[in-house]
Amino acid sequence: MKKKILSLLLSMAMVSVLFAGCGGKEDTAPQGDAQQEEQTDDSAGGDTITIGFAQVGHESDWRTASTKSCQDVFSAENGYDLQFVDCDNDSAKQLEAVRNFVEQGVDYIIIDPIVSTGWNTVLTECEDAGIPVIVIDRTIDDSDKYISWVGSNFKTEGLACGEWLKAYAAQKGIEEINALVIEGSTGASATLGRTEGFKEIADREGWNILDSQSGDFTQDGGQEVMESYIKSYEGQFNVVICQNDNEAFGAMDAMKAAGVKYGVDGDVILVSFDACTAGLEYVMSGDINADFECNPLAAPFVEEVIKTLESGGTPEKEVYMEEHWFVNEDIIPSIEVNGESQDMTVVTQDIVDAQY
Ligand code: AHR
What we know:
Layout: H1 3-19, H2 32-44, E1 49-55, H3 61-73, E2 80-86, H4 91-104, E3 108-111, H5 120-128, E4 133-137, E5 148-151, H6 154-172, E6 178-183, H7 189-205, E7 208-214, H8 219-233, E8 239-242, H9 245-258, E9 269-274, H10 277-284, E10 290-293, H11 299-310, E11 318-320, E12 325-327, E13 334-337, E14 340-346, H12 349-354
Parallel strand pairs: 1-2, 1-3, 3-4, 4-5, 5-11, 6-7, 6-8, 8-9, 9-10, 12-14
Antiparallel strand pairs: 10-12, 13-14
The protein binds alpha-L-arabinofuranose.
Alpha-L-arabinofuranose (AHR) is lined by residues 59-60, 62-63, 137-138, 188, 190, 217, 244, 273-274, 294.
């Protein structure tokens, strides 16, 4: 990669993205085959692109799919040298990984930020070194010194969950909602957005949120929090909201062990986020009532950003992943979120088979 030229282009691109506006848009996946061929031609030219990727960790099925997406797209075969660091959910380790990438002089840095704050200094260091940073999945809220962000609207996911629960409770004649929330990792924008979105609907509808604690986006965390909830709130709750599928798997284990009946035939409505394959299998079997997708396959869009930069263009500042909302029962065809009608999709085996 022509580093000096890129350094210049980077400064120009950073200035122009500031003026390009940040209106989010939903995107569709770049065409795989055409993209692949074009990339092969590039690599035949002999320029390997070095990318440092500071990944959150390995806490969930979602994370595994996100890592695989990057490794598949940024492969040696496709002309990339991917330096991958699993930061094990440790923010200090993640900052250190980014600084090491700067030291190595990689061509691009991809960051999935564990927490949304504390980024300005290290992003300034990347900028000073002329290395473009692309943020994926979670957001950075205290600095705009990155080229593009590719990810999900977590608040919309939380709002969708709340709007669906309102419609579902009305259909089932449930008059009172007493909810327990198992949050994701503290300080992660995925946690903050989902919590904010759901709380907005809960406050509007006058629901009771009995408790809201972090399960750290892990199965063990979900199980532990659910076990303690069962001790504290036995017989008092009729909804459990898990902020990812792995937490839901742990919560199911805890409820099963305690004899609490959940899911479409149970006493407790169980809701989850991510909609990974295993999550959708549980929606299909009726153990999870609804699952709000978070799409982990960002890498093809990141590659588009890199290609745009390589050809001297200005990429979009924000790219939103396309996402769907999944249910077991065919009783609520759609919900209204942010003033727009959104479909609720009943899970079938074909949908499960096609999922990440
Ligand atoms: O940031 C995305 C979240 O992080 C996913 O919902 C969760 O599974 C992951 O660990």
